[in-house]
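During the second year of the project, the team shifted from modelling isolated chains to modelling whole assemblies. The rationale, set out in the original proposal, was that interfaces cannot be judged from single-chain predictions alone. As a representative example for this report, we include one of the complexes processed in the last quarter. Its constituent sequences, exactly as entered into the pipeline, are reproduced here:
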Amino acid sequence: KAGVTQTPRYLIKTRGQQVTLSCSPISGHRSVSWYQQTPGQGLQFLFEYFSETQRNKGNFPGRFSGRQFSNSRSEMNVSTLELGDSALYLCASSFSPTGVAKNIQYFGAGTRLSVL
Amino acid sequence: DAKTTQPPSMDCAEGRAANLPCNHSTISGNEYVYWYRQIHSQGPQYIIHGLKNNETNEMASLIITEDRKSSTLILPHATLRDTAVYYCIVRVDYGANSKLTFGKGITLSVRP
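Output from the structure prediction step:
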């Protein structure tokens, strides 16, 4: 079974631009969560989607948004990029949403975003 | 904030058991202990989880103390490919706030 696929793997943008990252979950998984990883802050939760609905949200500004499609694929968008948005963005999928017993999240390899 | 404390790093010799400690003294009765690891430049990988009984799978064993205030992840025969950052996480397994909260983790270095 294929794992979680994130595209692109690497991305370079300049300040003020916007970016869209894509995540294809494991087949049959309906929950997708997004995380940001930086050397200073570590791994931080962004948001979670299940059945096209945002179920949970971390403490990030409104410039960070996401959505999920009917096939469970998810996209994350960051508008008006800042230098501090440079990070590894990770997507994780699970069969059931967080809040259901024994939810195990499986992570993709991430998209490394560099903002110049 | 993460509810666990782990030493920043440890090392072990290849082929020996690696015992990774984790303190979670404020753990609640309904919180599980999860372990993930992250090999450089890859996404975190699920290893194992447990509530109060010891657990074993093909990757590792998880030993949880009787008072549940600490646990140990055991890699029985460490290899060079086990060099990674290991995260110990406590989370409720239900409810809207059962997201994974990662701390700084422990860096395990396996030496030849």
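Chain A has a mean pLDDT of 92. The CA atoms of residues 2 and 27 of chain A lie 7 Å apart.
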